[in-house]
Amino acid sequence: MTPVDVIRHDVAPVLMGYLVFLAVLFAYWFGRRSGKTPRMLARGSGPGSPEAMDGRGYFSVALVRYLAPVFVGGYAFFLLIVVAFYFVIGERSRTFISQALGQGSLFTFAVVLPGFLVLSFLEDRVGRFLRRRKARGPGR
Amino acid sequence: MAARASGGDPAQRPAGTKRGGRVIGRVAVPGLVGWAVVMAILLAYQGLCLVRPNDQWPAFSDLLRVVMRYPAGRWVLFGLWLWSGWHFFVRGWRFFLRA
Fold first, then answer.
1. So what's the pLDDT on residue B93?
2. Low-confidence residues of chain A, pLDDT below 70?
3. How many contacts, defined by CB atoms under 8 Å, are there between A and B?
4. pTM of the prediction?
5. For chain B, N or C: smaller number of CB within 10 Å?
6. What are the pLDDT digits (tens) for A94-123?
7. What whole-number distance in Å separates Cα of residue B61 and Cα of residue B64?
8. B52-82: pLDDT as tens digits
9. Complex ipTM, two decimals?
């Protein structure tokens, strides 16, 4: 294995992961400088979250409007990683990109998205049930 | 992939090569101990940050929460999550996800 192979196959992916982590740290530092300390942020309800957009319930049109850009943007970034590493690593398999497109879109939109919606629906129902039970009081 | 470069795969080393420590079932013990120590330090740090919420030491969840406030941050994190799921679990699978 030549040094160039080591850099392409091993150093580049690890370095990219480390750079992403540094970007996370920078975003945190930038957020703190602009006064958005994380301890002040309410857990699970950011300004763009469905709860803030629609106070009636979690499973709603607001959730779909919140999820659509996340899924499309996330899938686009996933494809960007795959294509970038296709050239960086020098993957020789012809099916690499088509595998990513086919399996990636199935994974994203046929497995993850329905799973997330079902779990969100269940969380919403269970939360409502528990709140109703708490409001009725103990023993009733 | 990384194992090739770091020499971590003992199967690729010449027979009789000793590389710092005992080997159990073709796995180097110092490597496993190193990972155990690194993970212990990370989890201890995360735990300390969580039990003392009002200090200036950010927990990993705090970092992610700040990043998730930005749309680009959500795209990047979700894209990385998708990629790791595809790379480790889906890629090469030949059942209903036939390429």
1. 65
2. 35-59, 91-92, 138-140
3. 119
4. 0.69
5. N
6. 777 887 888 888 888 888 888 888 888 888
7. 5
8. 777 778 888 888 888 888 888 899 999 999 9
9. 0.73
| pLDDT score recorded for residue B15 | 46
Name the residue of chain B whose CA is nearest to A95's CA: B99
Q: Which two tokens stand for residue A92?
A: 């020789």
Shortest CA gap B63–chain A (Å): 6
Q: Is A99 on the interface with B (CB under 8 A)?
A: yes
Q: In angstroms, what CA-CA distances link A12 with A15, A16, A28, A30, B1? A: 5, 6, 24, 26, 12
- What is the distance in angstroms between the Cα of A117 and the nearest Cα belonging to chain B? 15
Strands B27-28 and B23-24: antiparallel
**Burial annotation A25-39 (CB, 10 A radius, 16+ → b, else e):** eebbeebeeeeeebe
Please report the DSSP string for A82-140 in residue order.
Answer: HHHHHHHHT---TTHHHHHHHHHHIIIIIIIHHHHHHHHHHHHHHHHHHHHHHHH-TT-
Type of residue numbered B9: D
- Whether A116 contacts chain B with CB within 8 A: no
Task: Identify which has the larger pLDDT, A91 or B17.
Answer: A91
In whole angstroms, what is the distance from residue A28 CA to residue A33 CA?
9
B93/A70 Cβ within 8 A: no
Of A114, A17, A52, nearest to B69 by C-alpha is A52
- Residues A38, B91: C-beta atoms closer than 8 Å: no
